[in-house]
């Protein structure tokens, strides 16, 4: 009962299914992990839901359908399915549907395999709802949802000599309205916008978005922290948002030389970069997301959300320029209570309730957050738990 | 986990200079920290190549970092200095805090004028950690080693064994560097002791691994073996056997 669960704020697992299994690539003698890298929902067209899920090498289309009724009263079959002897049938009746306990079925509908040499990091469904792209470290492929034995390579940045490789693709997304436009981000902090109408292989970008480096912040880690871990278009497609290690940037598609807004997620980590390099945290890939909106109107892309360490996540309001830090943790928040804002003390004297940088737990990282497409409900994933929060106004 | 936050007291001219810097004790010089970062990066790359399917993005970023350091060191002219210092001293104790590296390059101008000073290092940890205003993650409880093959390797092995193994490989890297002018990262890597990768293939029995997989940017590693280093690596065989066992188990 959906309304009830909103007011009670409790959620139960709807369905669980195994999407991918570990596989062994005999040619390379490698095991392909079953770990899911990305999930994308398709727009709903009928009662069933469809989603694409991908591991490092294979994308699968899953159909998720509900069954809460079953037919009873067949004339030729018993309830358990056995056929009746027709000679024993003396009357006829119309079978009816009777309610049953909700059953959720997930069935694989398509398997898109063998198109990626490198690890898939992104999938994005096109606004035509017929095609989608999948991106790995060096290539992007275009698929048709109905066709599994063929895909088209639309971006290839693999150098002829792999020793010359200095940049990889980190994320890719289709424009929400223009079905021939997509963007992809790189490990050097650039975003390239490509138009598939220009050529079959989009090796030359139509636009290149890059912010010039700030010389006062230059260090050996500059490139690593500029690597973009996620890119998301705004609802109208006029803007896009990128996440790099320390910040979230909002770009106007009409302006390539710098972002229009920059939000610092955890600037206090800038002086810790060497330790973060040492323990590999500097390579963590955080995602970012916009607030939900049921209309593709720009003024509704208001809030940006992204994760950080110590089970903190951050939200930025583009209009008021206010930001908030919240924590997803059972110990510190009772269910159904309002989350208390957190503050990290970067330096100097620590105030009460502030947390010092040195006591942050870098194993507790929030890499994935999601906003309900229509309502103010968010899902936040910590290492072992999924938290669902909703706007207290509901 | 790599040893972190160890401050070295540098002798031979460094002390006086450090002493004048607002009385801060024993801050390693920029050159030392840069060297430490280079060592760390090379170790990461080597470990990365031991994995069957390393993360390509991470490898590329680390390789680019190494290239940057190398370019800067070439410009400095400090590249030649390393060779005289590294043998017998390239050790994990040099993974010191590198807060200076996180500052801008303008701050480094003054320090660089004094030139590199790689005196012998006192291994005793002398500086007062409480006064340590550097930005290392000093609280051990706060930062547990992430679930990461590199850190597992370090934890399982005894420190002495670790130093022996990787010291040899770092030494071998620098030996080869002595003989060439390091113009490109490719040169840097092309004559690196590939015995590790031979061991890898010996142990796993799959020759193709060193050539395939995603760490293609380092595929120069699989160049013809250096016969001199083979004898070294055979003696390390048991240690690396142990490491591979751990990697497979984890």
TrEMBL record, chain A:
Q: What does the similarity note say? A: Belongs to the phosphatase 2A regulatory subunit B family.
Database matches in SUPFAM superfamilies? WD40 repeat-like
Q: Which UniProt keywords apply?
A: Repeat, WD repeat
| MF terms (GO), sorted A to Z | protein phosphatase regulator activity
Q: Which GO terms describe its cellular component?
A: protein phosphatase type 2A complex
What's this protein's name? Serine/threonine-protein phosphatase 2A 55 kDa regulatory subunit B
Q: Which PANTHER family match?
A: PROTEIN PHOSPHATASE PP2A REGULATORY SUBUNIT B (PTHR11871)
Query: Which InterPro entries would you find in this protein's record?
Result: PP2A_PR55 (IPR000009), PP2A_PR55_CS (IPR018067), WD40/YVTN_repeat-like_dom_sf (IPR015943), WD40_repeat_dom_sf (IPR036322), WD40_rpt (IPR001680)
To which species is this protein native? Answer: Nesospiza acunhae
Domain of life where this protein originates: Eukaryota
Automatic annotation (TrEMBL), chain B:
Q: Which Pfam families match?
A: SERTA (PF06031)
Transmembrane intervals: none
Q: Which residues form the SERTA domain?
A: 30-77
Specify where the region named Disordered lies, as residue ranges: 106-149
Return the Polar residues bias intervals.
128-149
Stretches of Basic and acidic residues bias are at 106-115
Provide the Gene Ontology terms for cellular component.
nucleus
Among InterPro entries, the record links this protein to: E2F-SERTA_domain_protein, SERTA_dom
Protein name in UniProt: CDCA4 protein
Query: Which organism is this protein's natural source?
Result: Nesospiza acunhae
